[in-house]
Amino acid sequence: GLQGSAPDNARKKDMLARSQLEFMGYAVEWSPFNAGRLAVSTSQHFGIVGNGQQVILDMKGKNLAPVHVANLSDGCYDCTWSPVSENHLAYVAGDGSLTLLDLASKKRLRSYKEHTAEVYSVDWSGANKRYIVTGAWDNTVKVWHPDRPSSLRTFDEHKNCIYSTAWSPHHAELFASTSGDSTVKIWDMNDKKAIQTIPAHKYEILTMDWSKYDANILATGSVDKTIKIWDRRAIEKGEVAVLEGHEFAVRRVRWSPHKPDVLASASYDMSLRVWDVKKDRKTPSKSIQFDHHTEFVLGVDFNNYMEGVVATCSWDESVTVFDSTKPPPKTGLSTTAPSK
User: What pTM was estimated for this model as a whole?
Assistant: First the structure.
């Protein structure tokens, strides 16, 4: 790559690991089995037209070494590891497909093509260990079982495209979806109708994540630049907290697996922020801002084994691993209080 300026090099020095990608980064997820293994979903040309790659990387010192690259003839938008087999992974693409990959044989186990538009989200349940949920721009959510030749059920209550889908880590049958219709819906996979609808933002909701510590708490992120924390038992009272600070849309939120009040957010403002959300406060503490990317940040995930270690991926065609508990390098330091 090109030699960066001095601040850029200082910034990279603070990374635990960094790797250049061939395409733009859309999603990143740490393996639940191998502490240093990452899956990264990538797309060419802003995901509009072109190819994609599902990349698997292993941390080797400061490098992220490729273990496997699955080439796609369309953009790859999201991925999820199997909670039961360390070699199995699912990824979704712009052609409407969901693919199950076996890293041991480097073969595709199954490829499903039921969605009629881009599939933007996929999640394999850690609570029930069996089912996969996908969300697509055809306005539908589908639930799958890896042994079955077609989807088990389709959920079509949303009035606009689906941006994210996630299983509850606490309930084997519950999952949530967020949509361009400005709602979050919570579903029981055995019911056709959503069991709860949260009008969480006035604009498109790009992301949500369930708290890993409290079955009733979830976070949402929107085009309105805010992150909101919700308690499922008291939606009518409004959000528990609003986190303000991002300058553009919030693309992904992830709760820490180690600290109940810590949340990371990736944004189109090219930053990653780490927040400390105390549930009983309307005003959050100052977030810590990391500015190591030079383009939209789309993917973020906390490592399950190394506390505070975060991976991010961006449209700048890089994936980075860093310690979010350490202050960002001076060059990118800007800690701003939420503006009212």
Answer: 0.91
